Amino acid sequence: MWPTAKELRSLCDNSPRAHRELRSLYERLWSGVLGLELRQVIDPVLDYKDYAMTIVSPGLDEPDAPLRFGQFAADFLRQVTDTLAESQLPLLAGQSVELDNYQRYRNCLLERFEKSPMDFALLMRDCLIREQCIFQQFSSTDQPLPADDDCGPPASKQIRLQSDARRDNIALKMLLETGIDSEAPRLQELTSSIRSTCDTLLERLSVRAKLKFVGKGVYESELAQLARDAQDTLESLQRLRDCQLLSADEAAVTGMRLLASCLVMNSQSDRVIKKGKAKYELRLRHLCPHYLSQRLLTLRVAVLTEELMQSLETLNQEQLEKLHSESGLESRSGQCRSSASGEVVLKMKFTSLPRETSHSGGGVCHQKFALVAFTELDSNEFRLPDGALSLALCCSQPVVFIDSQKPAATVTVLHDSLAALPGRLGFETELVKSANDVNKPPSLNKSLCDFVFACLKHAKDFCPKLWSEGLVFGFASKAAAASKLLCQPNYPIGSFLLRFSETTSYLSVTWKRSDSHVEALEPFSPEELKSSKLEQLLAGKAKLRYLVKPDGSHQAKDIALRPLLQSGWSQRGRASLDGYVPRAVLDQDDESIITESDMSALQLGGIAEEVTLRELMGQDDSDG
Question: Global pTM?
Answer without folding.
Answer: 0.38
